[in-house]
Amino acid sequence: MGMGLFMMAYVFPEDFLWGTATSSYQVEGAFDEDGRGLSVWDVYSKKPGAVLNNENGDKACDHYHLYREDVKLMRDIGVNAYRFSLSWPRILPDGEGQVNQKGIDFYSRLIDELLNAGITPFITLFHWDFPQALQDKYGGWKNKEVPKIFADYSALAVKHFSDRVKNWITMNEIMCFTILAHKRNLWGKKGPIKAPAIIESDQVVQQTVHNALLGHGLAVQSMRANSSSVKAGIVENLNVVWPIYDDPLHVEAGIKGFRDMNEQILYPLMTGKYCARFLEKLGADAPVFTEDEMKVISTPMDFLGYNIYSGIAARASDNKEGYHFVPYPTSMYRATMNWAVVPKGIYYTLKYTKEEFGNIPVYITENGMAAQDVETKEGEVLDLDRLEYIRTHLEMASRAIHDGYDNLKGYFLWSLLDNFEWELGYGTRFGIVRTNYSNMKRTLKLSAQYYHSVIKANRVL
Ligand code: BGC
């Protein structure tokens, strides 16, 4: 292949969106300012031992006060899109009822700042900071009132911001605030991951997933009823499945694994059905649902958002499933959180999505790496590991586009800043910008400089 062709292969479409992503509880801080109500994370993170070193998001990156500086950082990096979430209890301190105007004003200022910088906002309505008041009153997502309340909150947000914001994400990663939030010990000794532990029976846990799906569908409908310009989608941490190599047998095994591993959330969203295999597997623990609810859940979306960090490797097999998953050796290349680094996951996610669901636009709404991030004497972070992570993932995204799996419209790096990494607190760093938590100083890491150059060239470098 000549040099010209080689370079072409890594070029992204002209209108490709290059973004970064954050979420409210992880960056905002100001947990008790200007009328904000409490979220389940405010309460949970203060339970001794819940978060590593007993850290919490009270101050986080102080983005609530430093948002102008953070938008400027984004402008310096050159991004043209930003995905952030609204803190539900900042807007509705009790989750419903009385609106907190100061909360609305904050997001309004942030949106204006972004637009003035030429950055397209993508709003996530719910990224896990569920209002504590609703948890206390209704017991959270197990109650079918909550999806309706979520739809009302979504409509309210759209009424305030859809004059300036077109792209709306209902929820982030249903699995995390349902199953992972409610089942202690699911992950062995480590306890709940990324979500407050609220222990419920297996049936109730399954019901929370269904109710969240329903909340998503109702929110899509209520947003559209309140604004004609809304583009609505969801962010799903799908189970990424990739074949061990590009042999047709393994590729076929991969799609079978992809279907099975995503039968609880992605397929119901896209097809309006729980498959027989899934319902049989759950038996008496299956969620209670109606056909009408399934219609709501599968209300057609304008886009799908995928958070992609790692994946599972599939290999053809003559067992009844037609595949099995190959475990990763301990010496597999891994990010700091022990997640195997498998860039091909992006390629196959785009391929299988197009083959299964057609031309729905896709955004990678998160991709990034927790890295060691040692600071040099000069105060630099030379995070070549993260840089390579980004490069290899972008290469696979671009290969997919060039092979005709071209639904990908944008890429949001997780994360703009080092921030509060849920149960791991502040020690686990995902930012392309370093946050110094003692003085809140932000410093661009090597990966941010790399991302800047990639965006400028609009191709993988
Ligand atoms: C979440 C983020 C989180 C990231 C890294 C995703 O599951 O949406 O909030 O920080 O992964 O763990």
List the helices and strands and how they pair.
Elements (H helix, E strand, L loop, with lengths): L2 H7 L7 E5 L2 H4 L12 H5 L18 H15 L3 E5 L2 H4 L9 H16 L3 E7 L5 H7 L6 H17 L5 E6 L1 H4 L1 H4 L19 H25 L4 E6 L4 E3 L4 H14 L4 H6 L4 H7 L8 H7 L5 E5 L4 E5 L6 E4 L17 H14 L4 E5 L17 H19 L5 E7 L18 E4 L4 E4 L1 H12 L4
Parallel strand pairs: 1-2, 1-11, 2-3, 3-4, 4-5, 5-7, 6-8, 7-10, 10-11
Antiparallel strand pairs: 8-9, 12-13
Helix pairs in contact: 4-6, 8-11, 11-15, 16-17, 17-18
This protein binds beta-D-glucopyranose.
Describe this structure in words.
- This protein has 461 residues and is of the alpha/beta class.
- The protein has one domain: TIM Barrel.
- Helix content is 41%, strand content 14%.
- The chain contains 18 helices and 13 strands.
- The chain has helices at 3-9, 24-27, 40-44, 63-77, 88-91, 101-116, 132-138, 145-161, 174-177, 179-182, 202-226, 248-261, 266-271, 276-282, 291-297, 344-357, 384-402, 446-457, and strands spanning 17-21, 81-85, 120-126, 167-172, 231-236, 241-243, 303-307, 312-316, 323-326, 362-366, 408-414, 433-436, 441-444.
- It has an eight-stranded parallel barrel with strand order 1-2-3-4-5-7-10-11. Strands 6-8-9 form a three-stranded mixed sheet.
- Helix 8 runs parallel beside helix 11 (202-226) and helix 11 (202-226) crosses helix 15 (291-297).
- Mean pLDDT is 94; it is low at 185-193.
- Bound molecules: beta-D-glucopyranose (BGC).
- Residues 23, 26, 172-173, 237, 307, 366, 414, 421, 430 line the site of beta-D-glucopyranose.
